[in-house]
Amino acid sequence: MSTTAISVSASPRKKTTTLTFRQKKERGEPITMLTGYDYPTALALDKAGIDSILVGDSLGMVTLGYENTLPVTMDEMLHHARAVARGAKSALLVCDLPFMSYQVSTEDALRNAGRVLQEGGMDAVKLEGGRERADAVRAIVNAGIPVMGHIGLTPQSVHQLGGFRAQGKTASAAKRLLEDAQILEEAGAFSVVLEAVPAKLAEYISRRISIPTIGIGAGAGCDGQVLVVHDLLGLFDRFTPKFVRQYANLHETLHNAFAEYIDDVESKRFPAAEHTVEMKDEEWEAFLREA
Ligand code: KIV
What we know:
The chain is 42% helix and 12% strand. By secondary structure, it is of the alpha/beta class.
């Protein structure tokens, strides 16, 4: 086992809030966000000093093996949200509302957003869509629940978009995205994710709205950045989007560790003496006499 010391701050950080997001934008300080779906990852992200953890419905693809995010349920989101909430105490915790948990009615949207805070221990919800979600955003915000918007490539609309494709590449599509961002701001969203849109458009939108933009595949002009943690760690085997920078290759690390374990067991190098439980000789002898 590695004994490499990792430098982490000893005292707990101040809790990041939606106000922190706003202040960071005003000061021009980039906001850091990554997805997280379980306790150990949340613990490591929080200790590393991440501003915000997104329990994204991408968990359906990277941890549950679904083809896309559409099958993900509220119960699955809440299960992962609770694990993350147990691990992270300082980061702002945002949880995706899954497909069909907010599209049918404003009442559904509000009830499910409430569950994310009450049952999932999260601080805020995220939902996909622009103008068509303005009423839902308004209702959730009016109930005191912070909402993060998400426009551009919205994975829950993958079939309508014709695949996981970049958005906002024509003048009219770009204008519509700007308007959507403004509508979400006006509806009370505290922040908005811009996914897979041209960098110059993302930067323009970021300057035109007062709430922070969080980019994923949207260039450096956003107020913050988010990535799917499995992409960053090299833990998702199916594909790596072009906009990802991979900081580790954990898939390979896991493969090598598992192969080494199998080899150790098969060749009887594991378990060794230091992995076994001792028993006093007299107890063992008494046992043998009585057995
Ligand atoms: O579900 C998710 O992980 C997301 C990010 C890609 C922004 O929505």
